[in-house]
Amino acid sequence: MKNVKKFIQLIASLCICTSVSAQTKTPAFPEAQGFGAFTKGGRGGEVFIVTTTEDYGVNEPVIKGSFREAVEAAIPRMVVFEVSGIIELKRPLKIEHPYITIAGQTAPGDGICLKDYSFSVTADESIVRYLRVRLGDVHRLESDAIDIGSVVDNSGQLSDAPNSNVIVDHCSAGWATDEIFTIGTERGTVQWSIISECLYRSYHPKGAHSMGSVIRGSYGGVSILHNIYVHNNSRNPKLGSGEVSPGAVFDVRNNVFYNWGSTPGYSNSDEHVRINLVGNYYKSGPSTKMSRSTIAFHVGGILNSIHVADNYHSNNLEAAKDNWRLIRSADGKINKRNTPFPYPPMEKKTGKQIYEAVLNGAGAVLPARDPVDQRIINEIRTGKGAIINSQKDVGGWPVYNSTKAPVDKDRDGMADKWERTHGLKSTDPSDHKNDADKDGYTNLEEYVNGTNPNAATTSLQDYAEYKAALDEIEVLNVQGYIEAKAFEAARLKALQNVPEPKVEVSFSKLPDAKVKKLTVLLNDLVKIEMILVEAGTFMMGSPESEPGRFTDETQHEVTISKPYYLAVTELTTAQFGEVMESDENKGSKPAKASWFDAVKYTEVLSLHSGYKFRLPTEAEWEYACRAGTTTPNFT
């Protein structure tokens, strides 16, 4: 009971600090909605005008007027553009300092597109609007297109670093090699964006991938509103939280999902996850597996709770009468919630009602919708398109033309003509921070938002209703934390009652780069023959001329950077029993073991041998085959 009281006190103190010190009562922009709606961004900060599409590396001098200079600045800032085009990033680009607004809609011509490296947001109070991030496979990295609340190093690897008050609006992201979006924030919104075409057979070390979004949160809430998920194999989206936490509320509402492959959305097992799945539109496509063509979401475990309503599935019309027909779980048990979890209120619309509006309005539609998004929208309408392996499959990056930017002599981010039209001084470089109509938005915000600086702006999201939703979530957090702790305690107790398997592992020769073959003995009874596979580069996949192959197996170059020993051995009940102390009949038949059993099997071997055993990646397996390696029971 003492621990519970401490947790309640902690929540109370956090609520007070948040409401007093950080939370603004003016939305990020008039159309901002959801848990990230009241992000302050760079309001009142300095103006950074992007005048070049050039980028610079770690040891290169800062390029004045570059997008990187603006993003990496350590002061509150408003970022506007006087140029359009592709920005070829030389390394990952990170928002590490808070209070920033990126107004991609101000770019002249066709707008801005980032490529080659990931774009991440690790700072609080960040607004990102009308930006394209299409990663591509040029550098052969395992990487996301956009990461919110994650740290991306120069090799493209991620580590969690949850932030708060972030909103991404009208962005187009695609052609990543891991996920399109990784989101880990305590108060955030992704709205009116297109999450498309994550690459399938590309450079992910696990082989075929293509994932839409991983969205995680231990507290607060994340809103996924009016987006399009299209041509991603799985994780559309994947929802999860910390192992022992109340879990965030995930409000997945009024989105369009098209042509997932193996799985639409799902949630993690053994984690506290609270989901509203409301008013979405689902449409299977040419790449959708038949067995997954009528569902919308797969719920993980007993701590996953879900509310569903008003979803429409074009391949499961009966679900319109009973939305629970769209939900699946591994054991058939679903923790159903008849009322929604707390969320910032918005106009109620069904999946069928929002379809056209989302198709017409999602993505970086300002200053202009590009040919990639135009093609994708057309494929959704016509039921065509496919999950792709490379941006080359669909023509790659288009040309983005730039036109002459409006004259802005005082360099305050606002066009001189617009200032004169609205009674502002086009010769005053400081008036961008003023708020002529006292509605909470600065003059520069009125300019980038397309609103009148002399007439108070009406916003979609009401602060009182937003705050009430957060307060309700804090109350739920207390019970959620108790449930999560109880579940974790039960899990640990169950593990304590299971004896750790004991096995004696010995080697005919110690693993060494000079040893080409070795035998692993388990309890002096079971033999596993292993062959050394040297590091190298090979063409993964199949050439077009090879008969009987699918188009998603097209060849691409993959490098195996380290040598490894490989064995192909049939996991018999005898072998499984020796290692796992199974009670099954120890005959020669294959063991009835799941993938997770096989993983545990390798972990036990690692524990008792002092060497790392694991299952091979798809690339390691195919490389060994194509290198001509022969091992026992190779099939």
From TrEMBL:
Residues 420-440 are annotated as: Disordered. GO terms for molecular function: metal ion binding. Residues 529-630 form the Sulfatase-modifying factor enzyme-like domain. The keyword Metal-binding applies. Residues 428-440 have a biased composition (Basic and acidic residues). Pfam families: FGE-sulfatase. Keywords: Glycoprotein, Metal-binding. PANTHER family: PECTATE LYASE C-RELATED. This is Sulfatase-modifying factor enzyme-like domain-containing protein.
